[in-house]
Design a protein that fits this description.
The chain is an alpha/beta fold and 191 residues long. The chain has seven helices and seven strands; from the N terminus they run ααβαβαβαβαβαββ. It has one domain: 3-Layer(aba) Sandwich (Rossmann fold), CATH 3.40.50.150. The longest helix has 14 residues. This is Ornithine lipid N-methyltransferase. It comes from Paludisphaera borealis. Keywords: Methyltransferase, RNA-binding, S-adenosyl-L-methionine, Transferase. It is an enzyme of class 2 (transferase).
Length: 191
């Protein structure tokens, strides 16, 4: 089954629990991680990787000293990701829920991360789940770290992310299907 077919079937079955009806394009994937300084090793966490188009970009750009943790809840997506990235010693695919992000990191003796890249459908989460996610992000993200969020609703959620972050920037990627973009957020506010 192709990535597109699997993604579409998951979207039709689970609706807004899946962020998109199609995987991110290579252009959107590149734009989403374009603000990360790859010359500085660190820890990058991807949330909601799906079939891994952003994971592919992370793996291509990260040096051996950068640790990549890819968190995905759906077992079918996890299986695909593990098959594709089993040979990468600095990349680990974790099957789990973002509500346990701090626990996942603690299990790996990681206190804080440099960047979080999210493919989660955050605006469609319940308010409690949104607040839980951003509390977790605040607890694990370094003060100068970034939270990068893909979106298929360009600029629609600007004010939404401003409620949770001090600094929000947006980059538009018209070549994605559908046209999309990424928010680059810094300075997590207290929930």
């Amino acid at each position: 089954m192709s990535d597109f077919t699997l993604f579409l079937s998951k979207f039709l079955k689970h609706g807004t629990a899946i962020a998109s009806l199609a995987p991110s394009s290579r252009w959107l994937s590149r734009a989403t991680v374009g603000n990360i300084d790859w010359s500085r090793p660190g820890v990058v966490v991807e949330l909601g990787a799906g079939t891994g188009p952003i994971t592919r970009e992370l793996a291509a750009r990260a040096g051996e000293q950068t640790q990549l943790l890819v968190v995905e809840r759906d077992p079918d997506f996890v299986k695909i990701l593990r098959q594709r990235y089993s040979g990468r010693p600095n990349l680990e695919v974790i099957e789990g829920d973002v509500r346990d992000l701090a626990g996942m990191l603690a299990d790996r003796k990681i206190a804080q991360v440099d960047h979080i890249v999210s493919g989660l459908p955050v605006p469609s989460f319940t308010k409690d789940l949104q607040q839980s996610l951003f509390r977790n992000v605040r607890d694990v993200l370094k003060p100068d770290g970034t939270y990068n969020q893909i979106t298929e609703m360009p600029l629609v959620y600007w004010n939404f992310y401003r409620r949770f972050f001090d600094d929000v920037r947006f980059v538009f990627e018209p070549r994605n299907f559908p046209p999309a973009g990424a928010y680059f957020c810094r300075g997590v506010k207290d929930a």
